[in-house]
């Protein structure tokens, strides 16, 4: 696409961007939760272990005694390979364990469990502390059992889970990106279909677009249709105008010509005769131009909305040739028609107009007492109408340019014409999906015009 880039790509990037954001967010949340779950498990086991030790506390002859139950440490070993430390304090005195374990910032009140993190022998540790009042002699002594464990296991578990979450997030992102591209393409499909429908049309097809479009495209469709409608109207108006103008010009021209011819007969002065002949010639040129303009407008108008009927080409061509027979006879030109029955579908009025222009050229540009040959043949999928004459050929210029509007060739010198004949022929043929091929015959003796029409 041109200009500001592709909507599809932009939509894909936008959706994929949102998916990437969600992926990172979900990874972050899952990692956090995994870490918290691992920490909580460790806390629970530490608390259970400290409680199990605290339960063995008793007082014996005024002294606090305890047994370290094996189970209290084995449960810690079950969750990871981390090192375990403990400490039992009776009041301020160390009963057993590691004196160097850091004190809890928030010591537990009796019957409660308190947790803290700290550092021991250069490693981070998690500690759980339980406090109990034990009667030693007459005084109850607060005994604090602290169990600590390094945190490598927790780190490893949460790193594992975080990695898994990252993998899942990447997979989620890839799926979401593919789906985004798919969604972008699907939602743009109606737009592409409309564009394709418009570009498939012929240059003069201004019918409104009739297709189901999503609600968002309805305004585009209706403004496109309104534009085409306005364009169609303005084209029709200018065609009507040309037709009307040509008609209005031709009538008075005919009067001028008649008057000039009468005057020509009644005078003897050679210079004045010359002048009158020049006037008649100019009138003929103008009249021909007006006629061709009229035909051209009609062709453009009808080509917009071609009515296609089955046509036998040889019937139509012989009909056109018969109409031109008198003109040919004036120059002793023989029209030869070599027919074969080829049927096409098309507008007979337009095709007759095209044939008339090609034959008119062949007769007009050929010298007297020659032949104009017409042949109809067909290939597998095309019908060919080949018109050859024995005139001067198409001249030295580029032949394909002769179909341009008002273009006259080097052979046209001194011959009345407007340069619209081959334009009309080409318009008619292309409206039918065909084409014109212009060529001079070998050795420059005559022109060979081939009209190609698709077979139905
Ligand atoms: N059979 C032909 N032999 C020689 N020259 C031709 C022939 N057909 C066309 N041409 C050349 O091609 C030019 C364009 O032809 P076209 O029919 O478009 O215009 P025109 O004959 O000059 O005018 P008009 O609109 O009156 O037909 C002509 O001016 C002429 O030079
Ligand atoms: Mg012509």
From TrEMBL:
Main localisation: membrane
Membrane-traversing stretches: 12-30, 164-184
SMART domains on file: HATPase_c, HisKA
EC numbers, comma separated: 2.7.13.3
GO MF, one example: phosphorelay sensor kinase activity
Keyword Disulfide bond attached: no
Annotated Histidine kinase domain residues: 244-456
Entry protein name: histidine kinase
């Amino acid at each position: 696409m041109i200009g500001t880039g592709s909507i599809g790509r932009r939509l894909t990037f936008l959706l994929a961007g949102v998916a990437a954001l969600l992926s990172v967010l979900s990874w972050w949340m899952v990692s956090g939760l995994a870490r918290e779950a691992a920490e909580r498990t460790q806390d629970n086991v530490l608390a259970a272990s400290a409680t199990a030790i605290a339960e063995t506390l008793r007082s014996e002859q005024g002294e606090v005694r305890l047994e370290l139950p094996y189970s209290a440490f084995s449960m810690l070993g079950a969750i990871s390979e981390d090192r375990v430390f403990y400490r039992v304090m009776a009041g301020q005195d160390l009963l057993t364990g590691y004196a160097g374990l850091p004190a809890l910032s928030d010591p537990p009140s009796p019957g409660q469990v308190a947790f803290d993190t700290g550092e021991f022998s250069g490693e981070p540790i998690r500690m759980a502390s339980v406090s109990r009042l034990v009667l030693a002699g007459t005084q109850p002594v607060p005994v604090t059992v602290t169990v600590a464990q390094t945190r490598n296991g927790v780190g490893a578990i949460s790193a594992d889970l975080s990695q898994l979450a990252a993998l899942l997030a990447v997979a989620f992102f890839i799926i979401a990106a593919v789906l985004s591209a798919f969604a972008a393409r699907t939602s743009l499909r109606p737009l592409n279909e409309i564009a394709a429908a418009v570009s498939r049309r012929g240059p003069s097809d201004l019918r409104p677009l009739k297709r189901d479009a999503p609600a968002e495209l309805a305004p585009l469709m209706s403004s496109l249709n309104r534009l085409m409608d306005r364009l169609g109207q303005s084209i029709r108006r200018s065609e009507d105008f040309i037709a009307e103008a040509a008609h209005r010009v031709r009538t008075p021209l005919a009067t001028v010509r008649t008057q000039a011819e009468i005057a020509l007969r009644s005078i003897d002065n050679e210079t004045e005769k010359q002048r009158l002949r020049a006037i008649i010639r100019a009138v003929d040129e103008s009249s021909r131009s007006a006629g061709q303009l009229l035909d051209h407008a009609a062709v453009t108008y009808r080509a917009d909305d071609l009515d296609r009927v089955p046509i036998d080409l040889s019937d139509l061509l012989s009909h056109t040739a018969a109409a031109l027979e008198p003109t040919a006879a004036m120059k002793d030109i023989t029209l030869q028609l070599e027919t074969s029955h080829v049927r096409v579908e098309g507008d007979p009025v337009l095709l007759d107009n095209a044939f008339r222009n090609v034959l008119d050229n062949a007769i007009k540009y050929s010298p007297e007492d020659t032949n104009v040959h017409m042949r109809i043949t067909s290939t597998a999928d095309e019908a060919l109408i080949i018109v050859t004459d024995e005139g001067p050929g198409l001249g030295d210029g580029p032949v394909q340019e002769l179909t341009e509007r008002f273009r006259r060739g080097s052979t046209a010198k001194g011959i009345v014409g407007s340069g619209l004949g081959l334009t009309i022929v080409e318009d008619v043929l292309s409206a039918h999906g065909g084409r014109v091929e212009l060529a001079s015959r070998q050795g420059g003796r005559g022109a060979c015009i081939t009209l190609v029409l698709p077979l139905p």
